[in-house]
Structure formats: C-alpha cells, structure tokens
C-alpha cells in the first residue's frame, strides 16, 4: 500500500506533467498559426510582384490587407485613407489602427521612431523593382499587415553583409574648449650646467679690520750681528723695537780725577713716598732710563701734590646732561685738549677701530659737520683715547703699546705695558671693546688696563714728557663688575654694569678706597665712552650716538 505522502507526490507530478503538456500544445498551435500567416503573406507578396511585372491584374481584386497593400503600390505618391467599409478584417484593422494612434500610439511609434521595425519590414519585402525602397505610405501598409496579424510581424533570415561603404568627408574642426584648471606644480628639474663666467664686478669697499690673530711660534734665534758704531747719549724715548740680550760685563774703567768741592748743603730727609713712586717704574720696553735727576725731581713734585690733596676733591654728585650732537655711530670718542684751555678744537673718532681722526675747529664746526681728516700712523682700537698737550694717545691695534701721536710734528712714540691684556677679548670694559682707557686729570696722566692672569683693574701713572711709567697701582676691584670708569682729581670712579651708578671709588694717591657713591645717569643706554675733562670739570660721554656732557659737583 502507498502511504498518504506517496499519493500526494504522485498527484503533484501528474499535475506538473499535464501543465507542461498544455504549454507544449499551445506553443505548437501558435507555431502552426504563425506559419500559416507567413505563407499567406508570402503568397500575397509574390502576387503583387507578378501583377507589377505584368501591369494588369490576373484575378479579381482581393479583399482585406492584400488589397490594401496592392492599392498602396499603385498610388505611391498619394496618402491612402483608411477604408471604412469592406471585409471584417480590414475594418478591424482600421479600428485597431485608430485605437493604436489614439490610445496607445504603438503603431505610430514603430512607424516613425523604431529603426528595428524598418529593418524587419525590408527583410519581409523582397528587394527589386518598385519594392527596393518603401516610402511612408508603404510603411503604413506594412504596419496594417502587422496589426492584422495581432501585432506579430514575421522576419526572414538575415541577408549577407554588404560591402563597406566609402569613407565620409572629414568633419569641421570643433571649437576650442574652455581651459581646464591649472594643475599642480611639477617637481623641480635637474640643475642645468653652469653658464659662462661673467665679467668681474667692481672692487668693493674695504671691510673693517678684524681682531688680531694668535701669536705665532717664536722663530729661531738669529746669529749675532756686527758691533755697531757708538752712538751719542740721549734721553729721548727710543723707537719701538725688540729688546736685545744683555751684553757681557765690561772691564772697570780708570778712576776719574777728583772733582771740585761743592757748596755745603742742608741735610734733607728722604720722602717716604718717593720709594713707592719708583717701585715699578720702567715696566714698558721703551721706558727711558734716566741718567740724571730729572725724573727724580718730577717724582718729588708729584709726591708733594699727594700731600697737598684735600678732601674737597671728592665728587658729591653729577648734574643734568646736555646733548651736544646726535650722530649715527654707536661707538666713538669725542675729545678736547685737557691741557690747553684756549684750544677750542674738537677731535672725533668713529667706531671702535680705525685709522683716521676728524678735527673740528670749534663747537660750531662740529654742529655743522665741517672737519679735516687726520691720518694716524697705526690703527687704533677701543674707545679709550684722549688728547693732551696737542698729542693724541691711543692703543695700537693688536698690541699692548700706547701710541703718542703729535698733531703738530706728526711724529709718534710708543709705550709698552708688557703685562697688560691687549687681545683675545680680555677687555677692560667689554661693551666699548676697550683694553686701555687713557685719562687726564688735575694730577696728571693715567692709563687703566687689566694685568694678565689677574681680574683687578690696574692704573699706571705715566710721566708725559718722557712717556714712561712711574707707578703701577692695583685698585683691587675686579673688572668683571665694572661697566666703565673715569679719573678725577686723582680718584678712580667705577660704574656698575649698566653705567647708571658709581659703585666704587679708589684714591690713587693714597692707594685706599674712598666712600663715594652717587647716581651717574638715568638713561638705560650703556656708555661707549666716559672721560673727565679737568679744563671745564665735565664728564664727556658717547651714548648710542649722542655726544653728551655732564657737570661734575665736588664736595667743596
């Protein structure tokens, strides 16, 4: 026995087979119907071709679509109206055509827009005679035929491909389009070959003189030269040269004749300061060695000045400044002769190194910038120059020599301070690039410097006429704390790093510190130059291009 599940599956299979058979039967019937319609249309077309060939009909005019097709070929230029009477097929065809044009618009769409329908129509109608091409009325007749077969148009097999047509004429050039957006910059190309060498340019202005280089290694000792002629005795300062080696001790000379008896003299006590005065003389190489009592007498005069110095020579305060002139240079020195009160000339050096001095006839010439240029024998360095007794005193660049240049005779002398720093940026005052600061006051001629391997400020007392050092004084004040300094009435005054206050005072005559402290200026700028002029008792300064004067008030 079969179960209920087996019976249900058999019924479903029988239904599926029955449906497939029904579909196959319908497909076969449709195929037979289409073949019949194709045969009828082929016979009608052949009949039309025969009638066209004979020129007269051979049988009674057919009805329906065949008659409509024949009438359309007989009147190719006239528009065939759609018949309103006749057989039922033509009336039905006309009705369907009207409905298609009024409602769906299917036939009109095929007639005017469907190129595939035209190709299919050409494949049905044989080519030749008057049927080689179909104008608009014939196409409509074919449309009626398709509509008469319920919208089914049969096509024949595709023909052989025709030969390729000739190449058409080239078209016209199109107009230029709108420029596109510029693209991104490309990568830089390779560097090209160097071009030909150009003509040399004009010679540039000479640059500033650089700092002196390091000392070279000492050369080999040369052979001893021949003995020179005996020179004449002189007390003048010799020119700068290399110190020679001491010669061998000569034999003792014969005793001289006794001199005449001198007048009786008075017994005089030796001054205690005289020994201190000559304790460090002749430090420099060009220091003249006295062979008479000239320097001894001058030292005694200075010692008497030490004792005559009074307490009222101490500075109490500094007055309000007066600007003399404004210039563009940051560094420089402006000077007047401290010894000659009737000399109104003013000398100016610009920058902290150079070889020229500007000489102005007076203050009016300075304000009008009317000057003469004086050429120095060597370049100067720093901002510590001075003018005294018609001579310019300055440091020779790169050396520890002080140059004395006479403005009248144009002759020069040098004084060497062997133990002083003169290069490698071991400045006495760093802001003004100064190694030596030369000062003149009521007591004489002074040179401030820094001794090698020491940090303290040193002051050398110089005898101006012989241009030699009489005394070296250690002020015990480190130069690292000093901004600038000046000497007035034998007292050294040192400013702070900002040059705003005087923070240290030292009596060079008694070699003792003095209790003195006061405000120097209120402007924040540093000083490239600071010096005291005893002829008018004013401080001369160079502040960021401003030439200034400060009155000095002493305790008296």
Quick take:
This protein has nine helices and 22 strands. Helices cover 24% and strands 23% of the residues. With 556 residues, the chain is α+β, with helices and mostly antiparallel strands.
- What is the CA-CA span between the terminal residues? 156 Å
Could you give the count of β-strands?
22
Basic shape: rod-shaped
Give Rg in angstroms: 65 Å
Structural class: alpha+beta
Largest sheet: 5 strands, antiparallel
Unreliable sequence segments: 76-135, 233-241, 266-296
Number of helices: 9
Measured by DSSP, the beta-strand proportion falls in 15-25%
Mean pLDDT: 75
Secondary structure: helix percent: 10-25%
Furnish the topology, listing elements before pairings.
Elements: H1 4-54, H2 65-74, H3 88-104, H4 106-113, H5 115-124, H6 136-148, H7 272-277, H8 294-308, E1 315-318, E2 322-326, E3 332-335, E4 346-350, E5 353-360, H9 363-368, E6 372-381, E7 386-387, E8 391-395, E9 401-406, E10 412-416, E11 437-441, E12 444-450, E13 456-463, E14 468-478, E15 485-488, E16 491-495, E17 501-507, E18 512-514, E19 518-519, E20 529-533, E21 538-543, E22 546-554
Helix pairs in contact: 2-6, 3-6, 4-5
Q: Could you walk me through the main structural features you see in this protein, from its secondary elements to its overall organization?
A:
With 556 residues, the chain is an alpha+beta fold. It is built from 9 helices and 22 strands. Strands 1, 2, 20, 21 and 22 form a 5-stranded antiparallel β-sheet that branches. Helix 3 (88-104) packs across helix 6 (136-148) and helix 4 packs across helix 5 (115-124). The termini are far apart. Residues 76-135, 233-241 and 266-296 have low confidence and may be disordered.
